[in-house]
Amino acid sequence: MMSARFARAGLRATQFSVPRTAAVNGIRSYATPAQETRAPVALFGVDGTYASALYTASAKSAALDQTARAISTLGETLKADKKLANILGAPMLTNADKKSIVEELAKVAGADKAGILQNFLETLAENNRLGSLEGVCDKFATLMGAHRGEIDLNITSAQELDAKTISRLEKAVSKSQFSQGKKLKVVAKVNPDLVGGLIVEIGDRTVDLSVSSKIAKMNKALSDAL
Fold first, then answer.
1. Cys bridge to 139: 28, 51, 64, 129, which one at CB 3.0-4.6 A?
2. Among 111, 88, 84, 93, which residue's Cα sits nearest to residue 2?
3. Is Transport given among the entry's keywords (predicted)?
């Protein structure tokens, strides 16, 4: 676990609380994207701003695929080690702490010390935005999906679905008008609160077939009738 490696260096997640708020600035050369390398879709929020900046810088250097692989690795690491998020969002990190964290993150990502991702991580650290890294990873994946002509197909179920069921759902949606003729990027999620059934989201469309939704509608109908 990366959080354990940081802890050995004297950075303990338990001593930190909420990330410090800082203005979004100092994105170096990433702030002024050229027309031909701008992000394929508009993203909002701090993580969206940084993800778009990283996309632009990578596109200018013809390093999109390389950056995408590195960012994907970081995103998976952050999701696997939740304590790491507490460390990255710590408001009391010293410059030495930030330097150590950036070095560790760059190693995990396999980033070149003089490369775009290394510089980007340093920029996040300088602006006290390391806590936004997981969001940046998610938003960068969204940008890469748009770049590749993909559209997200989110399937949420009460219990984990088997590969055959997911494949059948993907095939059904791909034949529908909702796919817009694009390649589907399937993301399967589990939410026990649904009780049963599914919620299927594609683009800006949502089909709620969950048991919890049916129960909520039934409860509303009963309350309206009383």
1. 51
2. 84
3. yes
221 and 164: one domain? yes
Sign of CA pseudo-dihedral 159, 162, 164, 167: positive
**135 and 157 inside one domain:** no
Residue 117: what pLDDT?
Answer: 92
pLDDT for res 130: 94
Domain count, the chain: 2
Check: CB of residue 187 under 8 Å from CB of residue 155: yes
| Neighbour tally for 171: CB within 10 Å | 10
Please write the tens of the pLDDT for every residue from 12-21. 433 222 233 3
CA distance 95 to 98: 5
Helix (H) or strand (E) holding 208: strand 205-208
Answering whether pTM is above 0.70, one says: no
**Burial letters for 51-65: b for 16+ Cβ neighbours within 10 Å, e otherwise?**
bbbbbbbbbbeebbe
Given a contact cutoff of 8 angstroms between Cβ atoms, the answer to whether 6 and 81 are in contact is no
**Tokens representing residue 170 in the block:** 């993907």
| Domain match, 27 and 134 both | yes
Q: Which residue positions in the chain have pLDDT lower than 70?
A: 1-36, 113-114, 226
Residue 185 and residue 80 share a domain: no
Please tell me the predicted confidence (pLDDT) of residue 21: 34
Residue 178: domain span:
149-225
DSSP character at residue 158: S
Q: Judge contact between 134 and 85, C-beta under 8 A.
A: yes
Q: Looking up tokens 């936004």, which residue turns up?
A: 132
